[in-house]
TrEMBL record:
This is Peptidase M16. One of its GO terms (molecular function) is metal ion binding. The keyword Transmembrane helix applies. It comes from Chroococcidiopsis cubana SAG 39.79. The keyword Membrane applies. The lineage of its organism: Bacteria, Bacillati, Cyanobacteriota, Cyanophyceae, Chroococcidiopsidales. Residues 97-202 form the Peptidase M16 N-terminal domain.
Length: 505
């Protein structure tokens, strides 16, 4: 299970291809040239027209337009999305597989991740791993595979002139992996190294242990790979996991880039048409999630640290909540530059290097509400008090008009960046189908934000924020934290993060 990522409000990584990076570099270059021209030839104009940022006026944002795309289903059950984009001679694609590490056996935590890794690195029936890598590197192409908590993904990128060859290799990796034993051994060695080093990073500690406190250490949404669970995994386990989930009728394929749709359909039929479906495919039940620890202050003592790493929160919700748009506005009131936490805890009180507070939902299981940050050891207790105060104020103090306007504008102005390129748009369409959301979900969210009122924000704060259930975790130097944590809690519960050896599990 990967550590919780605060920025990770959405599960599936967008299919950002090289063409968009090239396009961005081109745009940046034009901007730099324009700025240099003005500086050299019209320096007085800049001085004469300089304005305070509050006086700047901007045109309204353009309406988001969804590029044209095709969606169809193959006879073997594979769903396909095609979105041509002729701006650059590049093609990229992603397959989403209905699988995830939340379905791996508890005694074999790490199995899903290893399956994804060795599916790609282990070679195929036609090409060894080295041959596969060489063919891709010669063409500046890529094929990647990974499995996270709620889905698996496989992607490719290539120049349009190399599309058929690279797409063929992509199909080969998905359909004919051999899971070479030596590549499995190598992947295990690398994971063992990660286990050995996992307590070196205090950010990693606080994120990992906070999830365990909220979800429970045995929850599929919080458990971690250990030496013992890694040792339990054999090559046959990878083969069995692959055979359980990797079927065309358990997969959504999306392709975007420089291609003709009819020709692309033929290419897909050529390389995926003979892949047989699994008629007896059954979808596993999604594991439930509930809050394990209801309140409490927990502490990980790291004497070498000069600052404290803090997370405070409780179980959150899902994206399909009717209150999600309002909760996201609440996020902006609380979080970010200009938010209450930044203005009060960091700027006015000077208690934090960084501070945040996020209602972070998930698609098909409850996410988290988590606030926290980093502070000097001596400021840990005031920092915790200040965070709790701001959370409670959301429930008692009505949001002011300027706060509400700033929060809504921040959300709405960033909305267009969800559709910066066709890859992002296609990724969203696939993601919504995968999780059973309507294709216009994001536009419904946008409308919800637009109609949010101050009273709405206070209502959801009262409904969803639960101070009595806030779990508090501090990773820091116990000796240096003065006043001590006992000043704000009758009991400070220590957490042992000793890494179990292979025998003890």
């Amino acid at each position: 299970m990967r550590p919780y990522n605060l920025c990770d409000n959405e599960i599936l990584n967008c299919m950002i291809s090289d063409k968009h990076r090239i396009r961005n570099f081109y745009r940046i270059g034009l901007i730099v040239i324009a700025i240099l021209f003005v500086l050299v030839y019209h320096p007085s104009a800049i001085a004469a027209t300089a304005k305070h940022y509050t006086e700047l006026e901007f045109p309204p944002l353009k309406q988001v337009q969804i590029p044209k795309y095709d969606r169809y289903e193959m006879p073997n059950g594979m769903v396909v999305y095609l979105m041509p984009d002729r701006d650059l001679p590049l093609v990229g694609g992603t397959a989403i597989i209905r699988t995830g590490d939340r379905w791996e056996p508890p005694a074999r935590v790490g199995l899903a991740n290893l399956t994804g890794v060795v599916l790609r690195t282990g070679g195929t029936q036609k090409h060894s791993a080295d041959e596969l890598n060489q063919l891709l590197e010669q063409r500046a192409a890529a094929v990647e595979v990974g499995i996270s908590d709620a889905f698996g993904s496989a992607s490719f990128s290539a120049l349009s002139e190399d599309l058929e060859m690279v797409f063929g290799l992509f199909a080969e990796v998905l359909q004919q992996p051999i899971f070479a034993q030596e590549k499995l051994d190598l992947a295990k060695t690398q994971i063992r190294g990660g286990i050995a080093r996992r307590n070196d990073d205090p950010n990693g500690i606080v994120g990992r242990e906070f999830q365990k406190l909220v979800y429970g250490s045995d929850s599929p949404y919080a458990r971690t790979v250990e030496y013992a669970t890694l040792d339990n995994i054999s090559r046959q386990d990878l083969v069995d996991f692959y055979r359980q989930y990797f079927h065309p009728n358990n997969l959504i394929l999306g392709i975007v880039g420089d291609f003709d749709s009819q020709n692309m359909r033929s290419l897909i039929q050529k390389y995926f048409g003979k892949w047989k479906s699994q008629p007896n495919l059954s979808q596993p039940q999604i594991p439930t999630a509930s809050q394990s620890k209801l309140g409490g202050l927990y502490f990980v003592d790291r004497p070498q640290l000069t600052q404290s790493y803090v997370q405070v929160g409780h179980l959150g919700g899902r994206f399909n909540s009717p209150d999600y748009p309002t909760l996201d506005v609440m996020n902006q009131v609380l979080n970010g530059f200009g938010g209450r936490l930044f203005n009060s805890v960091r700027s006015r009180q000077g208690l934090a290097y960084s501070v945040y507070g996020v209602w972070s939902p998930r698609f098909d299981y409850p996410g988290l509400f988590v606030a926290g940050g980093q502070t000097r050891s001596a400021a840990t207790v005031p920092f915790l008090r200040a965070i709790r105060t701001e959370i409670e104020k959301l429930q008692t103090d009505i949001v002011q008009p300027d706060e509400l306007q700033r929060a809504k504008e921040s959300v709405l102005n960033s909305f267009v960046f969800n559709f910066e390129n066709p890859s992002q748009t296609l990724s969203r369409l696939m993601r919504y189908e995968y999780f059973g959301y309507p294709a216009d979900f994001l536009f419904r969210y946008q409308r919800g934000v637009q109609i949010t009122t101050a009273a709405d924000v206070q209502r959801v704060a009262k409904k969803y924020l639960q101070p009595e259930k806030l779990v508090t975790l501090v990773v820091g130097n116990g000796t240096a934290i003065q006043p001590p944590l006992s000043a704000i809690a009758s009991e400070v519960i220590p957490i042992d993060i000793t890494i179990p050896d292979a025998k003890s599990g």
